[in-house]
Design a protein that fits this description.
By secondary structure, the protein is mostly helical. Among the domains are: 83 residues; 227 residues, no CATH class. The protein is 71% helix and 0% strand. The protein is built from 24 helices and no strands. Helix 4 packs parallel to helix 18 and helix 6 packs antiparallel against helix 18. The longest helix is centred in the C-terminal third of the chain and has 30 residues. The N terminus is likely disordered.
Length: 492
């Protein structure tokens, strides 16, 4: 095991282009994309202001991909420009309120809280202890660790509607301790030893488990309430799991193995890992007082997330636990202030939530939905379903959360689905509601846990976009290939 931890990863070949030229391209790309869109005439049915705002949004997305400056700074720049130019609201006070609105979003603060919980796991050593326990049990093969992480998420999914709390607040703080035990460090080439695979497996898995259970994702419940309001269709917990079961049965076990093939870890087997982990646990000795306190607080957070929804919102529950961590000396207030990754992620995700909300406010999203309807009139039923669901699915590139996506698009797209011959209201509703978890894999801001894993430093931004597209496409193809005949068979 000692030799394993000392092994240096292979050096990555230098790019042909110089750092200066790559830097120039990164700076120029957002400006070129945004300018080209703005110079084009606004499409029919869309206001000039909305088209200009879309140009700014596209420039921000390209800026996040290219990263000429940190992603949080790119997002903040986009919000400030939109507010100053009056692209969403012309009145100064309304523009300011809009620009700051993302900082009041529940998911933004839940993401921030997840970082602080991870800090508590790390500071007390509890995270290391649990990680060593996982390695002792399943650490002989990296694939085994991948499946252990996936099964943990599947176990929690029926009871935790917040995927951010489940994956970002519970699983991430624990598994973030595993890579370092194998010499795999964030923001370094060694991340590919094992860290990148484990982190991306955890994220990809939670997008699937979010779809399997109605209560596995808050946006599922939001979608059903909107569907009931617009179509009077009622979907039960049993209806949901029965309809998605074949897709879940295929995708859930596929994800860890698929990523093991296309995003492989450098360390695949470690025969001595279990013995080494056992020895390390013996060195750590019994749990110290701060570890026990952190464990109690973590269990309290889990209990509030699972059963306290009627009394306290998930983000507020997490902040309460963080305050108790400070009061009980698990972490210090200075530790909170020095956690730059958490503050950076808070700013970045808050600005992306604001920018995505702006697309709905300028009626860009509504225009897209209305433009799709006429395209379906000359297609067969199956082709029309694929086009409609595909448009709904890939429009998630424009949203910074699934809740925003759901609120903006479900009422519009369910109405369009009703126009497809042979598609019942129940089938149309389920076709659109099921993939609300899967779409989260597309971008580093697509679902609540995404910014947490992105900020962890094990998954580079480039990998997020490339493998997000690949996995997103695989998820979509498997989903459409199975769901249409299955719902037809069920006669929903």
């Amino acid at each position: 095991m000692a030799e394993l931890l000392k092994t240096e990863p292979p050096r990555i070949a230098e790019h042909a282009k110089s750092p200066e030229s790559r830097g120039t391209l990164r700076v120029a790309a957002p400006f070129v994309v945004g300018t080209l869109i703005v110079l084009l005439p606004a499409p029919e049915g869309l206001s000039v202001n909305a088209w200009r705002y879309f140009g700014l949004f596209a420039a921000v997305v390209v800026g996040i991909i290219a990263e000429p400056i940190p992603a949080a700074a790119v997002g903040l720049t986009g919000v400030v420009l939109a507010a100053v130019l009056g692209l969403v609201h012309a009145e100064v006070g309304e523009a300011t309120d809009w620009a700051l609105s993302g900082f009041g979003n529940d998911t933004v603060w839940l993401i921030f809280a997840a970082y602080m919980l991870a800090l508590g796991y790390a500071k007390t050593g509890l995270g290391k202890r649990i990680a060593l326990g996982l390695i002792r049990t399943l650490g002989k093969r990296t694939l085994g660790l991948g499946y252990a992480i996936a099964l943990a998420d599947l176990f929690l999914a029926p009871f935790m509607p917040s995927s951010t709390a489940r994956s970002g607040g519970t699983i991430y703080p624990i598994i973030s301790n595993i890579p370092g035990l194998f010499g795999s460090k964030p923001h370094e080439e060694s991340r590919r030893k094992i860290g990148s695979y484990l982190m991306y497996t955890a994220l990809a898995t939670t997008t699937v488990t979010s779809c399997i259970f109605l209560t596995g994702h808050a946006s599922n419940l939001l979608a059903l309430s909107l569907i009931a309001e617009t179509t009077n269709v009622t979907i039960t917990w049993t209806d949901w799991i029965t309809g998605f079961a074949p897709v879940g049965i295929i995708l859930f076990p596929l994800v860890p193995l698929l990523l093991y093939k296309i995003y492989p870890p450098e360390i695949r087997e470690s025969p001595d890992a279990a013995r080494w982990a056992r020895e390390e646990l013996q060195k750590m000795g019994p749990m110290a007082g701060r570890e026990r306190t952190m464990l109690v607080l973590a269990m309290a957070a889990l209990g509030l997330w699972i059963g306290g929804g009627e009394h306290i919102e998930a983000a507020l529950a997490a902040i309460l636990i963080i305050l108790l961590m400070v009061i009980l000396r698990v972490v210090s207030w200075d530790d909170i202030l020095r956690n730059t990754s958490a503050w950076n992620m808070l700013i970045w995700f808050a600005t992306m939530v604001t920018l995505a909300r702006g697309l709905a406010e300028v009626k860009f999203v509504e225009w897209v939905g209305q433009s799709i309807g006429p395209m379906l009139s000359n297609l067969s039923t199956s082709a029309a379903i694929v086009v409609l669901v595909g448009a709904f699915y890939y429009m998630h590139y424009l949203f910074a959360s699934t809740s925003a996506h759901t609120s903006a698009l479900i009422p519009v797209f369910v109405g369009v689905a009703a126009l497809i011959p042979g598609v019942s209201p129940m089938t149309g509703a389920l076709l659109l509601a099921y993939p609300l978890g899967l779409i989260g894999i597309l971008t580093p801001y697509g679902i609540g846990p995404s910014p947490i894993y992105y900020g962890g430093g094990y998954i580079p931004g480039r990998d997020f976009w490339i493998y997000g597209f690949i996995l997103g496409l695989i998820f979509f193809v498997v989903y459409m290939a199975i769901i249409i005949p299955w719902l037809t068979f069920l006669n929903f």
